[in-house]
Amino acid sequence: MHPTIETFLANLTALHQLEPKNLPSDVLHVMVKMSPEELFKTCTQLSVLLNNVPSQTTPITLSEAEIATLAEEYLKGILKRFR
What we know:
The chain is mostly helical. It is 59% helix and 0% strand. It has 4 helices and no strands. The model has no long low-confidence stretch (mean pLDDT 90).
């Protein structure tokens, strides 16, 4: 993962900061320069962090299909920021 994104994640204080509409411009700048594969991987990681929060009684349980769908929706959210 890119150092800029690692720093962003290390300084998170709330989950809403992971939403595409709330990503800081330096993170977006890094993501724009990524290869398609790297961008999809990063979107997958960020969307799982945002949507797959376990509780005390519920473990993490996303299927591969759910993860792929979340990553696609996350990428669409990032693309909306550039329109």
